[in-house]
Amino acid sequence: MKPDLFTAPDYYNIDALLSDEHKLVRTAARDWVKKEISPIIETYAQKATFPKHLLKGLAEIGAFGSYIPQEYGGAGLDQISYGLLMQEIERGDSGIRSTASVQSSLVMYPIFAYGNEAQRKKYLPKLASGEWIGSFGLTEPNHGSNPGAMETNFKDKGDYYLLNGAKMWISNAPFCNIAVVWAKDENGRINGLLVERGMEGFTTPETHNKWSLRASATGELIFDNVKVPKENLLPNKSGLGAPLGCLDSARYGIAWGAIGAAMDCYDTALRYAKERMQFGKPIAQFQLQQKKLAEMITEITKAQLLTWRLGTLKNENKASSAQISMAKRNNVEMALNIAREARQILGGMGISGEYSIMRHMMNLESVITYEGTHDIHLLITGLDITNLNAFK
Ligand code: TGC
Ligand code: FAD
Fold first, then answer.
1. pLDDT band at residue 1 under the 50/70/90 scheme
2. In which band, very low, low, confident or very high, does the pLDDT at 195 lie, cut at 50, 70 and 90?
């Protein structure tokens, strides 16, 4: 792969809106991505292997539980810092950002927000340091966009809960130490259970043959009469709103992350277009190529402003789920469109692993589907503005 010469676009001087702490966090993450992700990611993506050796470094830059308080091992940062971390990591690869999103928003967040003090103390420091890796089991073979219809269930057996069912398309599943699993109790109410690797009847087969997120490990979570200790139930929230609350945090991170992928594609295409000569001129001098590049930077700038504003709302605890959906949907589509256009600017070289663009493009095909599909987020906005529910 080509050396990483990334220069971040900032057309509206959004830097001026960031604090010194935000910039420090971002610089540390950006440097780490250049040094650790860029040189190896193409090889791991081609091999379809997750680069496990990155876990320690991810923990060190604060990517695991950045907004979880320091007393539990988190970095105690604000929501804009969390967003900037996701942006920088996804600039390297969406699959590596996936691991950080899942660990922070889908595993540490529910333990912090819905768990008791004993659970927080037992699990959060290990997850923050990367000693343990978590996964989040909501999607099932028969229930993706409609998780409320899930079949995975548990029964109260006196001393323990007996868990049965299956989850699929689960990031980090093949190597997770712990899974936050959403399952229905005997009354049909959704609860979160902490299922640890090694519990009898719990298996995590890997999903192969993916053309997308190849450097991320995806798998199933299978529960065949797993005896889950009663102290592993998350006691402080139940109902579908509990997993959806975690998704709000992860979707917010993805809205930032997608900007990272888009910036990388734009920056690569701009540099290439200025260097590549055809008909005796750099291709950047042709109006058609300028149109593509000008539209890219416009869309990136709009997404940066949208996301920065969402982050300030989130810091004030005022960001609604629908506002988060709008940003996730807009920014991922923006990034995917930019990846497709950038790939064309590179011509034949656009399909080569010498450059990051095609990998970003393929990754973003998952990002536009997971954490709520593009259609589902449109319908969430539709519901919010009309008060009419297309899901019922
Ligand atoms: P609905 O009746 O609307 O709501 C049920 C209850 O949930 C509450 N609620 C929310 N709470 C917090 N945050 C949100 N975003 C919420 N949305 C809804 C709601 O108020 C209600 O509460 P209550 O107290 O009245 O019971 O639910 P519905 O069954 O009609 O479904 C709505 C819909 C379709 C929007 C929802 O199911 C949905 O978002 N579906 C998409 C599923 C999804 O996003 N799955 C993602 C799986 S995880 C993943 O993809 C990880 S990828 C990780 C990576 O690698 O980065
Ligand atoms: P479906 O729900 O079957 O949807 C198929 C199509 O129908 C979509 O286009 C959808 O938009 C459309 N559709 C569905 N309902 C409606 C409707 N009401 N109106 C209009 N159109 C509709 N899940 C987890 O729980 N944890 C994870 O860690 C995780 N990681 C993932 C990693 C990868 C690489 C991928 C690809 C997925 C991951 N997922 C995870 C699952 C992901 O969240 C689901 O794939 C997603 O929610 C969509 O569900 P589905 O694939 O079953 O599609």
1. confident
2. very high
Which listed residue (220, 333, 341, 371) is catalytic?
Answer: 371
Could you give the CA distance from residue 220 to residue 133 in angstroms, rounded to a whole number?
A: 15
Domains defined along the chain, listed by start? 14-133 (1.10.540.10), 135-232 (2.40.110.10), 241-386 (1.20.140.10)
Report pLDDT for 295.
98
Q: CA gyration radius for the chain?
A: 21
CB 321 within 8 A of CB 29: no
**What is the C-alpha separation between 175 and 219, in angstroms, rounded?**
9
Cα separation, 165 vs 183, in Å, equals 8
Q: How many CA atoms lie within 13 A of 167 on its CB side?
A: 27
**Is the beta carbon of 285 within 6 A of some atom in ligand 2?**
no
**Tokens coding 118:** 């004993």
What the block records as the tokens of 17 is: 């809106």
Residue 268 Cβ inside 6 Å of ligand 1? The answer reads no
Does the annotation mark 371 as catalytic?
yes
Atom of ligand 1 nearest to the CA of 367: 56
